[in-house]
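Q: I'm writing up a methods section and want to include an example of the input and output format. Could you take the sequence below and give the corresponding predicted structure tokens, formatted cleanly so I can copy it straight into the document?
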Amino acid sequence: MFPMITGFMNYGQQRVRAARYIGQSFMITLSHVNRLPITIQYPYEKVIATERFRGRIHFEFDKCIACEVCVRVCPIDLPVIDWKLETDIRKKRLLNYSIDFGICIFCGNCVEYCPTNCLSMTEEYELSTYDRHELNYNQIALGRLPMSVLDDYTIRTILNSPQKKNK
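A: Here is the clean output for your methods example:
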């Protein structure tokens, strides 16, 4: 008779424990009801990139001295630099500069170590194309400044981090 009573007691304890777990999970669900949604409607709303965001690289052709530091510090030797030595002035003249963003890992080493600051990171992150050969940017495409998200009146901008309320 005792095993039957202990069996009923164990069954009752298990039911109470299950009800407690269900109640706790229901309370967690109810606590999330008052929160604002995090998702954004992408084509119509865009997130403002943070200050140190590493997007597409911007290149200023006139500042470059063809020292090839960017190629040496790049972990994958990505920037392609063509230059010619001008013997009369004993300096290098830059002919072509290109970066393939299909291969680039956006580490930012080239920007950090450039002695003339001709490279900089932009906030542009929309680089998707249907053909990967379109991701090979020459000095003309790299020199194009991207349109700022803040300047586009057709898009509602959303801050990346939530604003802190001052009390």
